[in-house]
Predict the 3D structure of the following.
Amino acid sequence: MRLVMFFTGILLTSSAMAQMDNSIIDSEASNTIRLDSLYQKLDNQQNYKDVRVYNDSKNLAFVSVSAVEVMNPGAKEEHVKETDFGNGPLISTKALMIPAESSRSVRVYYPETISRDADRFFRIRFTPVMPTKEHGFTDSQLKSAKTVESNFKLSFAWGGLLAVVKNSPNLDYKVHLEASNNLVFENTGDSLVTIKYLSLCSEDNQCKNITAKPFRVLSKQSKKIPISEFIKQNPKMNRIDIQEDSLPLKSINLVK
């Protein structure tokens, strides 16, 4: 199985302040939540992935965890819906209590019983909240908080795009260089492709990586990557090497 997660920041207006024994929960905690990675992949030999959530503040943090399905992956404006039970990822907990300057792990599991005849995408959300039963916190977790009061201000939640890749994918893509020196990738297969890197190379195989991180192209979609400035800055380079995560290397010769 493959499972992909790519995480993005979402603004919301909520924070928590509470007296906890000798410690204080306040809005600082909600502003310093982060994840170990904004993108994860689960191959067909795995059916779960652990996501680590960090609290970098000096205060206790409460975080709600939820999942929704993305119906239009790749679109500028995302449309999501809740999944029926048993037809989407299972999350080990829907409520986290993270001590100051500590971390907690959340397991995301995709059941083997779900059919995988096409790629599916989900958003896993990690949202700082005030501790309540409605957010999934237990009585024992709530006992620590003696008083809770609202203190609304801008704070960050984190969400992750989780792509469950189909079984036995037919991976393929086309790529060409436009006259304006834009690389255009077209995913002609039936599943997500991941381009690990792009390199500009010279005739004697001296190469320079021009991608800061991998990028993905969804099935039947295309992506344009501008490389004009890289070509100008490296006039001795005469080809582009393209390495996909699972497919053989492709090369494009540069016409001078």
